[in-house]
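Budget justification note: compute hours in this period were largely spent on complex prediction jobs such as the one shown. Inputs:
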Amino acid sequence: MTAGIPAREHPVTHVADLPGRAARYAEWPSWADPAVVAALRDCGVSAPWAHQTEAASHAYEGRHVVISTGTASGKSLAYQLPVLSRLAAGEKAKASVRGGRVAEPPARGAAPAVTALYLSPTKALGADQLRSVSSLDVPGVRAASFDGDTPMAERDWVRAHANWVFTNPDMLHRGILSAHGRWATFFRRLSCVVVDECHSYRGVFGSHVALLLRRLRRVAEHYGASPVFVLASATTASPASFASRLTGVSCVAVTEDASPRGARTVALWEPPLLDELTGENGAPVRRSAGAETSRILADLVLEGARSLAFIRSRRGAELAALGARRILSEVDPSLVETVAAYRSGYLPEERRALEGALLSGRLLGVATTNALELGVDIAGLDAVVLAGYPGTLASFWQQAGRAGRSGDSALVVFVARDDPLDTYLVHHPAALLSRPVETAVLDPANPYVLAPQLACALAELPLTLPELEVFGGAAAQEVLAELAEQKLVRRRSSGWYWTSRDRPHAEVGIRGTGGEQIAVVESDSGRMLGTVDPGSACFAVHPGAVYLHQGASYVVDELDLETGLALVHAENPDWTTTPREVVDISVLSTQEKQDYGGVSVCLGEVAVTSQVVGYLRRRPSGEVIDHTPLDLPEQSLRTRAVWYTVSAELLGSDGSDGSDGEVGTGGHRVGTESAGPVGTGEETQADGRGPVREGGRTPGGAGLVPARVPGALHAAEHAAIGLLPLFATCDRWDIGGVSTAWHEDTGEATVFVHDGHPGGAGFAERGYAAIVPWLAATREAIVSCECPTGCPSCVQSPKCGNGNEPLDKAGAVAVLGTVLGALRQHGT
Ligand SMILES: Nc1ncnc2c1ncn2[C@@H]1O[C@H](COP(=O)(O)OP(=O)(O)OP(=O)(O)O)[C@@H](O)[C@H]1O
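Corresponding output:
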């Protein structure tokens, strides 16, 4: 694979061999309905794998269970078997009563008619799973979807007759729970709730879904049902506790994967720095991960390997496929047609055709977004290329798991993008290959999520005092008191009641926390393309921004925040846009504080004020074309943050000149980026200047002259934001940061990293809990990058409000070394 690469380039930083494993089979459980077993056998499943029987039996016997095993390990069968068996048995009992073949009332032990609910994070996955269940054609099973695409005419039929309803959290929230009276029979019989791909319920969305599932349980209980929850998850750490937090009921976990797996070789790849191009502030530019992926994909196709390349953006996926085709056209034109792109927006039939073509070898190379990650039955490929870290280890293994055939060894190539987390990972393979997959973070106690969810719960059914615990006890009580003050709810001796005639459901968006969404509309056609959270509108759809939708590209002409409208026109420019913003932060309350002799680490509530002041246009190579100023209003965000302070003495400055130069108003400024774990190592001077001021330096101090402090903190902040996703299952775009050489609320040099959502989604807490490994990884990521004074792979941020100035890479290494020294010396 490295054959075509110039001898001076050494992109492969690590190679690991992961062994294969043979399948472990189990018996079909004795309770399994013969018709279901026969149907599964007909589909080629001769016997279940051990973990499938184990999980299925928990569910059938009424224990809440989460199955958390690898890609293509047959998680669907684990829930289909118990649900279909119950549905089939229930229908038989009903039929025999109706047919008068059983004495009335039904004999003891005869199953009552039951129903089941299936929830998936996306409509496409729900449709795939429904198709799979329907194709089994088990007698008595009437599976149907109920989502935004279900025609009105069919909805009554589904409510009245379906016994397995496939839906998503959005529809459960707006269309089912809000009108539960119309679903009374369904709820009365509800015996099982399947929550598929539950690891995707994280952050604000996850917190909403956690409360939604509590609402679902309460409504079911109201009708006398107590459904068992069956959750399917990619491999994650502590699946039982995550599933229990998500559902609010105690779940057992099945984690031992008994499905067969081929051996795999994993190569970590860092694109080389280019001599001929420079990026922002003259920083060096690496060959892009997309271009590198095209090259690798073309080489794999030439070798005849069936390969899948995962790219983060839809446009990137298309460009990677085009790039590979272009390379092949020069080498072997007959292979050009064996490469294609795949992205969301494809019809199920197109997806099936594509899966078939890839499995049969008619297609050899497919470049895709993560649209192929969930619920697509492609496994056993020869190679998978990942262009950039997909955000979580769970996703990394989900994507990598598509490679691996029994017999031959398969290849996984991870190509680093130019950001600090990717840089860290390719230089610290253990962080990628040997760490347990992280647990998804969610925080159902976030008042910004809890308040609207409680409003919906109350509008569904009055809330009694004992039920308060279900929604978080004291946190719920506080929120209810506020709702009562707003005269939305009334307290009576028996509990809380919704007072308004209006149902709050339509106003509550469960995929974000911000009120009215901004509609993105194509001016020419008047077609609505999508919506954007009001909190991120100035960022995502500012005038001049490139907006991507279903693989097509648009440019924003106008953003009207008053009317909630962004007008765009179709255009496919040869550049991308990056907004620039100025951010200020103030501490509202400090919840936790630890002192470590000159360094303190805090967790608390903050107010963040931000204003998008312009944007950069860049070529795909990273080259900056120009900067355009913008005049947009300030936005404010009340959220949670983790921050650390460093004394002037430890920084090595005397504190008399703590100004941070260009760093925004009041000595504040912002940046944001992505992130990784442990490492100590000697303090490395990352550039020729070196951080150290010899003589008079505080022991363990950073030894920085005052003028270098702002740049050092700023660089340390960018890299820390970059690495937090490795500890907090967030995306770098979910968090932000501010650093300053002197902050008026702390009275010291401070680096803040804050949640990007109102009320927070639990990310700051994670950062606080993992402060040492997080900052150690941050420092390691910076040290690992061989650029001289900072580039996007270490300390530059793609959304820095200050155009990535000032940044002091060596200073950041010194500050982080000092902070870590203090944490380790004074920590418990
Ligand atoms: N016991 C079995 N024996 C043989 N094949 C099986 C068995 N169980 C499931 N399969 C097959 O394995 C494939 C993957 O199953 P499935 O899609 O349910 O896996 P999954 O764990 O849900 O995957 P993902 O990680 O993509 O969500 C399917 O083609 C399915 O038919």
